[in-house]
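*** Backbone structure tokens ***
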Amino acid sequence: MAFAYTIQLLAYSLQYRIKSGVLILFTGVQGTGKTAVFGCNESGPGVLMRIYGDCGMVCNNIDALLKDFNADSMGKLYCLLEEANPGNNTRNNNKLKDIITGGRQRIERKSIDPFHVDDCRSFISCSQDTPFKIEQGDRRFVVNRTRDKFSPTGVKNGDITQEEFVEFGRKLDRIKNDNEVAYELFAMVMRLDLSGFDKTRLPVTAAKTEQQNETSCKVTAWIERVAKLEFYDPVNQFEDYFEFENDKIVSLKKCRLPSLFQRYKIWYVAAYPGTWLEPRNENSFAKALTKIPNLVTMKKTKICNLYTVLCPEYVGKEIDEVNDDDAEPEAKRQKSADF
């Protein structure tokens, strides 16, 4: 499905010469031939660059795409982002979103007043396993993962021999440097029937889900797991979690921010080993909490409710009902886990 959508999107951009509003991202280990096909390598331009010719451009970093003096991008129909990842920078990500979908482009030359032109560029990005910041419900990115087999990683893992990898590279160079191959691809996509194609129905690939999980708010991910009581041990933590009234649960207990942040850090270290803590301090952690809708309102006393809305299906239940709950969470099987 992802392959069919990608081919149809390429056809859409070439047939109509208008911006699709969707960036095609190819991610994977180094050496799989991403740049050779969609950009330029040491042996010459790839297939798409041969199709677009002077109407194609390559940006090797995000600053080259977002720079102020950008007259070189005027009149282009295709742009390859080669390892041009905006990272977690909010400003860069917002500007990239606008560039992907915006129909007008601000052109600025040195010592000349800026002006606006139509922006018809389609975008492809080739990246290694550095994730883009893709939000849930996103309609700007379709993500494809290349196979590791024909790469140095495949050689290292024993999937192919070094000789087979070298031969693969030679064949790839011969194919992508052949103008006839570029013409046949162009002719094929120009003949595609796009009458039933809806570019807004993006396939949600496993690679896209992985990217979203990698760049999503870690505090939100933790809260979602807490809400499912994945870290809850009913034998040892029952009275630590809940407030009672007449043997009924009325709410989850309140917890001071330092204690809550400490529990989050314990989870983060286990979930993301070898990475920097995110957010780094209590204040940033508190800000992240306040951005979660309908969850918590931080007070000057830095005491937050942990949380009446967090587990609404438990509020009002008898104690025995909770203990006999058939929907056994993960932590009941792994009682040593703590949030």
Q: What stands out?
A: The mean pLDDT is 79.
